[in-house]
Amino acid sequence: MAGRVQDKAAIVFGGGQTPGESIGNGRATALLLAREGARVMVVDRNLASAEETVAMIAGAGGTASAAAADVRDEAQVAAVIARCRDAYGRIDILHNNVGASLALGDAPATELTLEAFRGIVDVNLIGMWLACKHALPAMREQGSGSIVNISSMAVREGYPYVGYKTTKAGVVALTENLAYANAQHGIRANCVMPGLINTPMAIEARVAAGMPREQVVADRNRSVPLGRKMGSAWDIAHAALFLHSDEAGFITGVTLPVDGGRGVS
Ligand SMILES: NC(=O)c1ccc[n+]([C@@H]2O[C@H](COP(=O)([O-])OP(=O)(O)OC[C@H]3O[C@@H](n4cnc5c(N)ncnc54)[C@H](O)[C@@H]3O)[C@@H](O)[C@H]2O)c1
After folding, report:
1. C or N: which end of the chain has fewer Cβ atoms within 10 Å?
2. Ligand 1 centroid from CA 257, angstroms
3. Mean pLDDT, range 18-43, rounded to an integer
């Protein structure tokens, strides 16, 4: 039986993961796309972590390759996109997962440093635009393509730090612009807005900042209406899979919250 993204060529930026007990959003999405038939290039600043994801895909019988790139570096981003096109002949799916907050020195307005804010803009916003900039020409030539950018419910909720909230709001605006400007080329661009998800990126950064692990987990679980439990990376991966698949062929420019109802509570 054909998979839901059978034979599509996908590139996942941030497809490795922060070390920790659970699975990250980018890795779960790369695994699910491969399980549903896509050939996946897994890109990460940390090549060893991308290679771990590829080994997991290969172990499950899927097709994938790993590449190193830092999304802050335009030449590196362009090179891995060209490599993906060379390897798979096309680019059907661009999945932009890279993003961070506390790990990049995020803070409230009066405490945030200029250097940290610029660094967060570079990683969370400019890096996503760079990947889109270099994948779009191939998609336009094909007359098709799907882009999913990972934003955050921090955009719509009370969130204590400036850099993450503002750059993730920028991701929504970037995606809407891409959707509008590229619809004529058959290219769709959508956002996923994760709520509180039990990933190492979310938990370990707070533990490293001095918060007790049990308290971090309990506080996050308590504030999710559906099941009083955080979501998992698979919840994000399934939403992304749908948006990248032909099932979502008439959907572009949307921002899909995946938050267990927290946004309406
Ligand atoms: N976990 C949550 O609760 C939550 C909530 C809202 C949004 N998100 C979003 O989900 C995404 C992260 O999810 P994850 O669980 O996969 O995180 P993760 O940290 O496990 O994975 C991100 C990957 O990106 C890589 N990376 C970091 N900086 C990079 C750079 N400059 N260039 C290339 N690669 C780089 C890291 O090495 C890592 O492997 C982020 O966009 C984040 O904002 C998460």
Report:
1. N
2. 17
3. 97
- Has residue 209 been placed in a domain? no
Q: Is the distance from CB of 26 to CB of 17 less than 8 angstroms?
A: yes
DSSP 231: B
The model scores a pTM over 0.85:
yes
Identify whether 243 is part of a domain: yes
Domain of 191, in residue numbers: 9-195+233-247
Q: Ligand 1, closest atom to CA 196?
A: 3
> Starting from the edge strand earliest in sequence, which strands make up the sheet with 39-44, in order?
63-68, 39-44, 9-13, 93-96, 145-150, 187-194, 255-258
List active site positions: 164
Which residue, 104, 252, 262, 128, is CA-closest to 187? 252
The tokens for 32 are 């699910």
